[in-house]
Inverse folding.
């Protein structure tokens, strides 16, 4: 007999030393490993993890029932045959042995040929059993390996579907995988042409190129069309090639629908034309998984193209508008800059976005605008290299970053200057004739007595001339501030100045029963400023707030220290300023439509305030809602 494996292990458990000797002699002839022990533990220890080829057990082993030992050995090594060796034959014992699954049964007297035969028989049966096990497990391993291969292919495909937006590439990979995994002869991915209602081949494997290019199938009366109409897959296996309502003859085919948002958009299929090799239910399941990938790829590509279109639209708008736009992401890097903003920031045409915004800001005002962060002062005025003046506004957008929009105010600035020049000239030239008028009127009484009526008329002329002189003085004063003539600077404590100003408005506040809230920052540092102008600024703002707030309203004056600047706010609950008037209220002589004629004023107050603020390197703006109230915000640098 030839050994089944390199090593054969015989386990012998028998109490009789003579029998053991006999067995030893008989069995070691073939140079097999013979292991003789009298307990299960000893036996197991002696062979480690190996599987015995044959087991021989005596009727009683070390006082224990041989049948019990055999039962334990059988459950440990189900594939190894066990021979039971008994002294006395009995039907009962035989029955129990059979029930246990003992392979053979020997009794005394022991004949060598009988024993040899029994061993041979058992070995043969054991070998058969082991071979069967081996071939079964080989089959199982192969099928497992195939499934692992399929899963790997699917995973790989999944990865490329999510990574690639190239539909040609992804669809080809899907069709190739469909053919490889099912073992079919050819495969194709068909898409529905919405315009013609026909199916065309978007990707194919093993089809002729011409066929692929010209393939057009109306979605009616064909196997594929039933897949499209019912959204159900088909599996066809025929013995002889059939023209099963497809465009060509096949033995077997599978088509699964591609369903996007509940609508069939195409089909994925494989078929066998040459050989009669049936396709299986498993193949159908695989194709369904692949179809899912195809649908994901289609949807990805659709979403990408929608995003691209939106992005292009957005970029066209950005490129076309007259305003500059600069977008900075949350980490402070430039995410977007349109052409206008490029020219303001003096960036070369090939400048690429992505770098830190701090690297491209040449203008000090813009640097400060970004450094201020979330602040009330989100505006700056800046000039571009071509001399134009821009109003830059910064808006923080949560989750996105910061956007600065630049609006061209060059012409406004120019107009403002022309108007100032005009006003200065006129007011200056008005002053001399007015002085002459007042001088001569004074002389009138000296040249002869005036009657009562004449005296009354002269007084009226004096009053009017003085009122015009006052107006002209104010204009000249404004002209001087604008021209920066009064450049005196002193250390000023703004809070003290505000308290003095509030004191002077006490009568008006009391008369209108206005609730005054003063919310001043503790320890406002002294600023370098012109004391007269600062007082004028505060007075004018408070005057307006009180003047344009009806009885029982409230006026709040607030100061905040923030990053090297002082923010002063004067807010009221008054009539508010119509949006259409807002751009002009800082202009000279401008009075908004909200004020009744009864409220006195020249319309110069705010233009003086603005000139003072700008003279001190600050900024001023207004927020107002009609019938709700108005807030003026002044920002002054602390070190000027
Ligand atoms: P003046 O200050 O020279 O006496 P005035 O108050 O009319 O005159 P400005 O102070 O320059 O002129 O203000 C211009 C206009 O802006 C006002 O006429 C008014 O229409 C509007 N305005 C200013 N402040 C307020 C405010 N707090 N509430 C409502 N409207 C205001
Ligand atoms: Mg005023």
């Amino acid at each position: 007999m030839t050994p089944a494996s390199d090593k054969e292990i015989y386990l012998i458990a028998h109490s009789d030393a003579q029998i053991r000797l006999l067995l030893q002699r008989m069995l070691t002839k073939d140079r097999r490993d013979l292991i003789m022990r009298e307990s299960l533990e000893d036996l197991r220890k002696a062979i480690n993890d190996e599987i015995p080829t044959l087991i021989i057990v005596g009727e009683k082993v070390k006082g224990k029932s041989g049948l019990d030992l055999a039962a334990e050995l059988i459950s440990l090594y189900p594939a190894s045959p066990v021979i039971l060796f008994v002294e006395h034959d009995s039907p009962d014992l035989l029955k129990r042995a059979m029930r246990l699954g003992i392979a053979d049964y020997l009794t005394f007297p022991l004949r060598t040929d009988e024993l040899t035969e029994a061993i041979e028989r058992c070995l043969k049966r054991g070998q058969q059993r082991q071979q069967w096990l081996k071939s079964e497990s080989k089959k199982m391993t192969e099928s497992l390996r195939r499934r692992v291969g399929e899963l790997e292919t699917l995973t790989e495909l999944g990865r490329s579907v999510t990574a690639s937006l190239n539909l040609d590439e992804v669809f080809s990979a899907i069709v190739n995988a469909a053919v490889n995994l099912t073992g079919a002869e050819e495969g194709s991915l068909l898409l529905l042409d919405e315009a013609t209602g026909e199916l065309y081949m978007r990707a194919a494997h093993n089809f002729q190129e011409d066929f692929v290019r010209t393939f057009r199938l109306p979605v009616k009366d064909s196997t594929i069309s039933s897949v499209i109409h019912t959204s159900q897959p088909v599996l066809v296996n025929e013995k002889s090639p059939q023209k099963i309502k497809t465009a060509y003859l096949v033995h077997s085919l599978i088509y699964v629908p591609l369903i996007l948002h509940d609508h069939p958009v195409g089909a994925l299929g494989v078929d066998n034309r040459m050989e009669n090799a049936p396709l299986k239910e498993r193949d159908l399941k695989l194709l369904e998984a692949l179809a899912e990938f195809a649908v994901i790829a289609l949807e990805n590509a659709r979403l990408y193209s929608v995003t691209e279109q939106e992005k292009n639209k957005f970029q066209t708008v950005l490129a076309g508008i007259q305003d500059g736009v600069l977008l900075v992401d949350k980490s402070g890097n430039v995410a977007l800059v349109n052409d206008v903003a490029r020219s303001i920031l003096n960036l070369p045409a090939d400048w690429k976005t992505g770098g830190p915004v701090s690297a491209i800001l040449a203008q000090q005002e813009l640097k400060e605008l970004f450094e201020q962060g979330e602040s009330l002062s989100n505006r700056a005025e800046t000039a571009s290299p071509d001399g134009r003046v821009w109003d830059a506004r910064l808006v923080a957008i949560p989750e996105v970053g910061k956007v600065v929009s630049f609006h061209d105010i060059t012409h406004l600035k120019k107009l403002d200057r022309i108007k100032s020049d005009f006003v200065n000239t006129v007011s200056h030239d008005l002053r001399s004739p007015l002085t002459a008028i007042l001088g001569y009127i004074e002389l009138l009484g000296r040249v002869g007595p005036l009657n009562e009526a004449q005296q009354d008329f002269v007084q009226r002329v004096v009053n009017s001339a003085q009122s015009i002189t006052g107006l002209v003085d104010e204009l000249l004063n404004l002209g001087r501030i604008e021209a920066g003539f009064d450049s005196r600077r002193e250390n000023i404590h703004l809070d003290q100045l505000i308290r003095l100003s509030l004191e002077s408005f006490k009568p008006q506040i009391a008369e209108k029963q206005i609730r005054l809230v003063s919310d001043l920052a503790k320890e406002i540092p002294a600023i370098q400023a012109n004391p007269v102008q600062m007082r004028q600024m505060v007075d004018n703002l408070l005057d307006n707030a009180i003047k344009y707030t009806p009885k029982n309203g409230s006026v709040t004056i607030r100061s905040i220290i923030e990053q090297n600047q002082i923010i002063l706010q004067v807010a009221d609950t008054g009539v508010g300023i119509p949006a259409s008037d807002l751009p002009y209220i800082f202009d000279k002589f401008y009075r908004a439509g909200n004020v009744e004629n009864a409220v006195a004023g020249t319309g110069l107050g705010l233009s003086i305030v603005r000139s003072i603020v700008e003279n001190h390197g600050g900024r001023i703006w207004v927020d107002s809602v009609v019938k709700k109230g108005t807030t003026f915000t002044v920002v002054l640098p602390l070190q000027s």
In short: The two ends are 111 Å apart (CA to CA). The CA atoms of residues 61 and 441 lie 152 Å apart. The chain has five domains: 8-135, 164-305, 321-408, 412-483, 490-637.
